[in-house]
Amino acid sequence: MTARHGNGSGRPAPRPNFGDRLTEAVAARESQIVLGIDPDPAKLWPAAVEATSEARARLASTLSEAEDAAGGVGETPSGSRAAGVISRLETAAAVLAHCRALVDAAAPAVVAVKPQLACFERLGAPGWLALEHVCEHARSRGLLVLADGKRGDVPVTAAAYGQALVSSTPSPFGPVSGLLADAFTANPLLGRDALAPMIASARAANAGAFVLVRTSNPGAADILDLELATGERLWERLAQLVDELGDEGPSGLKDVGAVTGATEPQHLARLRELMPHTPFLLPGIGAQGGDVAALAPAFAPGRAGGLITSSRSIANAHQNSGSSPPDAARKEAERLREQAWSLG
Predict the structure, then answer these.
(1) Dist. CA 338–CA 315, nearest whole Å
(2) DSSP-based three-state secondary structure for 105
(3) Helices and strands (H and E) in the chain: how many
(4) Domain 18-67+80-341 sits in CATH 3.20.20.70
(5) Where are the beta strands (DSSP E) in 189-318?
(6) What is the pLDDT of residue 334?
(7) Of 43, 114, 150, 331, catalytic
(8) Residue 272: pLDDT above 50?
(9) Taking the model in full, what pTM does it have?
(10) Strand-strand pairing, 183-186 and 176-177
């Protein structure tokens, strides 16, 4: 009987790294589009907000299970504190309902979702539970999950970040799973030793990391365009570091990627020269003014070499179309998919 995973030598075949998984996912879904999920409680889809009962039940069930597991430790909140807990739960339920509807609308045209962690964390514990449910729902639709938190700290804390986002935390009571994302964004400005533990956590889980190199916001020029004593710009040095940190798999794509803003496409050729096998995460399309047609250098290693992220232009597409939010989001995601795929 043939082994399920083997290489003919009797030993298990190597597990694919993130670059290989990404290549496979892009080919299977014929998409390089990443749906950014940045929920604003004041701008949720009305129909989703009106149908929050299922989302509320999901969150309430998770909270109840946690309380039961704790054996009733602690006291039930009362008065204004209880009102605050209920308010956060209701808001988180509305956010969850909106995000599930958004994922369902865009899923056929995208390869991954990129939840912005701060948009959930500001809702307290119910917000983090909503985030977990959003990630679970995206995975159920066959999508990769890229956790956008731009984490970075001293090595001990960096290891905890990695465990929280992509792997698990050892404890005397057994391993505790974190968010179990497929990749995360990371801030490199504390240096190589602060990135290493996060990347190690990612590799242990066959996950990836996208390191900030040249971001899409206008203020990036204040820091990232500074010229170093060597004559190179800071973003060029960061690009070299990212290239050194990545491991290349059989697909030819590395497991450590770079965040390279789509709003500054004039840098892409140089970035690709410095990182020939690195996947690029390209934010800034749509609301920030980036143009898909200008991103061709990103796809030099293959279609999975560039992931185009779009959030508001998909979620808010109905504001300019007159269609329902789900229909408009689906059409905008498909438009972006077709435009990017045509670049080859």
Answers:
(1) 18
(2) helix
(3) 14, 10
(4) yes
(5) 208-214, 256-260, 280-282, 306-310
(6) 97
(7) 150
(8) yes
(9) 0.89
(10) unpaired
| DSSP assignment letter at 311 | S
User: For residue 309, which phi and psi values (nearest 5 degrees)?
Assistant: -100, 140
With beta carbons less than 8 A apart as the criterion, state whether 178 and 165 touch: yes
Please confirm, yes or no, whether 254 is among the known catalytic residues. no
Please report, to the nearest 10 degrees, the dihedral formed by the alpha carbons of residues 116, 20, 201, 215 taken in order.
-40
Taken in order 182, 249, 279, 154, is the CA torsion positive or negative? positive
Share of the chain above pLDDT 90, in %: 72
Sign of torsion over alpha carbons 145, 311, 315, 130: positive
Alpha carbon separation from 31 to 110, 144, 230, 344 (Å, rounded): 6, 12, 39, 11
* C-alpha distances out from residue 219 to 38, 266, 310, Å: 20, 16, 20
Indicate the residue type of 305.
G
Q: What letters, b where the CB count within 10 A reaches 16 and e where it falls short, cover 21-49? A: bbbebbeebebbbbbbbbbebeebbeebb
Sign, CA torsion 323/325/330/332: positive
Question: For residue 9, what pLDDT is reported?
Answer: 47
DSSP letters along 19-85, please?
A: HHHHHHHHHHHT--EEEEE---TTS--HHHHTT-HHHHHHHHHHHHHHHHHTTT-S----HHHHHHH
Query: In this structure, what token pair is assigned to residue 195?
Result: 């990135």
- CA distances, 237 to each of 82, 226, 326 (Å): 50, 11, 42
**Domain ranges, ordered by start, for the chain:** 18-67+80-341
Q: How far is residue 15's CA from residue 122's CA, in Å, rounded to a whole number?
A: 36
Rounded distance between C-alpha atoms, residue 212 and residue 90, angstroms: 34
- Residue 187: pLDDT above 80? yes
Token pair belonging to 307: 């992931």
Q: 113-155 pLDDT, tens per residue?
A: 999 999 999 999 999 999 999 999 999 999 999 999 999 999 9
Distance CA 149, CA 116 (A): 6
- The CA-CA-CA angle for residues 52, 57, 63, to 5°, reads 125
Residues 6+ apart with CB under 8 A from 27: 303, 304
